[in-house]
Every structure is written in C-alpha cells, then in structure tokens.
Amino acid sequence: MSGIIGRKVGMTSIFSADGRNVACTLIEAGPCVVTQVKNVETDGYNAVQLGYGERKEKNTPKPLIGHFKKAGTTPKRKVVEFRDFRVEFEGQVNLGATVKAGEVFIEGDFIDAIGTSKGKGFQGVVKRHGFAGVGGQTHGQHNRGRHPGSIGACSWPSRVFKGMRMAGRMGGDRVKVVNLKVLKIYADKNLLLVSGSVPGPKNSFVILEK
Q: What is the pLDDT of residues 69-122, one digit of tens each?
C-alpha cells in the first residue's frame, strides 16, 4: 500500500466530458519527507514513514527532534506510516527523500481518503441517529417532538442495553472514504482534485492511500 499525507483545501465542482457537474475536493498532497524506512530484517515488515507540515522546534519533544534530525529534515506536524510502500518504490524512497503526489498517483486512479470528521458536539437522537421524534401534538403531547421515546423495559432487564442509540457526542471520528477517483493532478502546485467529499474541515490533515 502506497500513499501520501495531504491537507484538505476545500470543495468545488467541475464539468465532466459528458456534461455532468461533478462535486470534487481539492487536496494539497505533499510534498512529504521520508522520516524512517523499515524493513523485514530490523522491524519485521516493510514500511515507509512520511512526515508532512512544518512544526516549531520549541513545541516538538526532544526525542522527535532527534528522530527528524536523523532524517535530515525539520520537525513535521503529521507523521504517518505506510506499510509495504517499499515493495512498489524499492530504491526510490530513502531516508530524507521527498515524495510528491505526482510520483505516487496518476490521473484516473481510485484512492481512499482517511480523515477526522467534523465535531458536532453533544447532539440529540434526531440529529445523531436520524430518529423521527415521538410525533405531533395530537394525543396530549406538547413537549416531546424530538425526544427518543422508550429506551428499555421495566422489571426486566432493569437496565439499558449496551449500544442503545441515544444522545451523545457526535463527530470527531476517524472516517475512511473509499474509491475516490483522481480527476486532475497539478504537479507543480502539489494539488490533487478527487471526486466526492473527504472527511474533515478545511485545512485538516488527510491520509491518501492507493
């Protein structure tokens, strides 16, 4: 599996060759720096660790400063490991090398995007789970329009079952969206245009996997 780290710029739309208006997301993908190379002999598996985004040295733990200095680069904000990256790019990714989007993806590829979804805070069951509410005000109900209704039985089991859909924190989860098509690559600006939406707000980190 090969991939790259990027930053979500925002959404837009373009017209396809057959005249359809296609919603798409613009992602600044890389350039990333190879901060560690793992192999079967020393680590038990093949992998490449990539770093992306600048980070102030005063806000970086000392062990990480040494880790980045070993790769000959400045501290990075986001570090992600891609397993079996070296199988496809044997000899092309060495410690301290720069990996760009145009070297990993080509137009027409289908990729997976991983990000952290927008946090919505504490939400009720209608917004969080799509409940319809208890109903109208016809039968003596005037204040239960968005309430969850019954959540369990009485004397048995005398408790609420685990996993019951109730109000609570919504969003802020790790989300993976699969099979997004690479529509356009702007190699000189390290930009990717992919079909569909990508989880997370603007300027959030996105992991792209091939």
A: 998 899 999 999 988 765 556 656 788 888 888 888 888 889 999 999 999 999
The answer to whether the beta carbons of residues 191 and 26 sit under 8 Å apart is: yes
120 touches 170 (CB < 8 A): yes
- pTM for the model stands at 0.83
**Rounded distance between C-alpha atoms, residue 166 and residue 174, angstroms:** 20
Write out pLDDT tens, residues 144-170. Answer: 888 898 888 889 889 999 999 999 999
DSSP the chain: --EEEEEEEEEEEEE-TTS-EEEEEEEEE--EEEEEEE-HHHHSS-EEEEEEEE--GGGS-HHHHHHHHHTTS--EEEEEEEETHHHHSTTT--TT-EE-HHHH--TT-EEEEEEEPPP-EEE-HHHHH----S--STTS-SS-TT-----S-STTT-SPPTT---SEEE---EEEEEEEEEEEEEGGGTEEEEES--SS-TT-EEEEE-
